[in-house]
Design goal:
Strand 1 and strand 2 form a beta hairpin. The N and C termini lie far apart (about 35 Å). Helices cover about 50% and strands about 5% of the residues. The C terminus is likely disordered. The chain is globular. The chain has four helices and two strands; from the N terminus they run H-H-H-E-E-H. It has about 110 residues and is mainly alpha-helical.
């Protein structure tokens, strides 16, 4: 899994918008960003698609058997939806319909 952060290329520009700049805590590989770019057709649309992927990941409840608790990430999902909406407007891109799935326990 490769990681590069170079603002002179598309992957680096996507990482800039996604705040995914540190390899140790990276959310995406270079290959995943290249795929998002290929699917979406532009850096900014690729950023929106990547945010959508993060939202889908966060929509899954996090069960911790040792504490018998559940984290539903509802606050994070709400913040990500707001970010997505703001960037969609700023970028002038409304091509992705994002719906936050119902999170159990919210």
């Amino acid at each position: 899994m490769a990681f590069t952060y170079d603002l002179s290329n598309d992957n680096g520009q996507m990482r800039f918008y996604l705040r995914d700049r540190v390899e140790a805590s990276a959310k995406f590989t270079d290959e995943e960003l290249a795929f998002a770019l290929s699917e979406a057709g532009s850096v900014k649309a690729g950023v929106l698609l990547s945010i959508r992927v993060l939202m889908m990941d966060m929509a899954n409840p996090d069960y911790k058997a040792d504490w018998l608790s559940e984290s539903n990430h509802a606050d994070v999902l709400e913040a990500m939806q707001k970010l997505y909406d703001e960037l969609s407007k700023e970028f002038g891109i409304n091509s992705f319909a994002v719906m936050i799935p119902t999170v159990y326990g919210s």
